[in-house]
Amino acid sequence: MQKFSIAIHGGAGTLVKGMMTPKKEKAYKSALQDALNKGYTILKDGGSATKAVEQAVIVLENSHLFNAGKGAVFTAKETHEMDASIMCGKTLNAGAVSLISGIKNPISLAKDVMEKSEHVFLAGKGAMEFAKEHNYQLENEAYFYDELRHDQWLEIRDTDSFQLDHSVKKDSKFGTVGAVACDQNGNIAAATSTGGMTNKKYGRVGDSPMIGAGNYANNKTCAVSCTGSGEFFIRGVVAYDVSCLMEFKNLSVADASEEVIHKRILEIGGDGGLIAVDKNGNIAMPFNTEGMYRASKTSEGNEEILIYK
Fold first, then answer.
1. Strands 188-194, 82-88: parallel, antiparallel or unpaired by DSSP?
2. Which of 199, 189, 212 is nearest to 279 (CA)?
3. pTM
4. CATH superfamily ID and name for 5-308
């Protein structure tokens, strides 16, 4: 039988061990375990990779611990603007949304863009209009309110600075979430969701909803979900870069991922990490920061949930 597998991440960055209490570490690992179990069960029952990554990401979006969905950071205007994307490696169909507010699970809206529209990427008012047409219920601001996220924002409001979750000052929540999977039919998929940067202005969009930058899937090569300094991941077209190295240089998913994260993205000044899977179910989870919330499970019985190197 075809080996099947799933990997998830909850962001990369300055995860300083000394600042992580045992209680907090347990909470993160428990949330990662729940997401991993959700996605893996779908794969085990013969479900598609696309469904598995969507459902795994939903679990992470529903946790206040990560910067996506419920735990999204505050913008300069004290609101939430969320981004998400999903891609199917078999068909190369993709869906993405950006600058949306009030949507509990942005990844599901991205999936609906992929499956129920003729488009790939919807943003802002148009994306919200699409959500309304598809009967999405809007959550009120209180649903997304989190004291720690608000405190992060209060530190830098009324300034021109903005912060990635994983900048040095942060000791609590880190980032973007994502999932990649290979199902029993050898099809792969990737999903990524984020709340962006604290105090972001001007409708800033990062790499997470951009197909090829923060998210990509192609059965010929791999499925990739990224987390890190989005501007650099956009410039480096990171997710597609991993795929290209596999397609044109015949690198393995592990070697291609290492090359991009430990060499190519560093050369342009970026930091972060990614998770990737190939059509044979092989997984790679490299990062060039102090840590990355990550977990993986394969049908061969290998399972890991990790935070640090």
1. antiparallel
2. 189
3. 0.94
4. (Glycosyl)asparaginase (3.60.20.30)
* CB contact set of 21 (below 8 Å; sequence gap of 6+): none
| Contact predicate 9/273, CB 8 Å | yes
The catalytic site residues sit at: 176
pLDDT at residue 198 in the model: 81
Strands 291-298 and 188-194, by their bridges, are unpaired
Condensed to tens digits (0 to 9), the pLDDT of residues 261-299 reads 999 999 999 999 999 999 999 999 999 998 999 999 999
Radius of gyration of the chain (CA): 17
Task: Give the start-to-end residue ranges of the domains of the chain.
Answer: 5-308
**pLDDT at position 161, please?**
66
pLDDT at 170: 43
Q: How many CA atoms lie within 13 A of 198 on its CB side?
A: 28
Residue 160 and residue 217: Cα distance in Å, rounded? 36
The token pair that represents 264 in the structure block: 């190519």
Tens digits of per-residue pLDDT, 76-129? 888 899 999 999 999 999 999 999 999 999 999 999 999 999 999 999 999 999
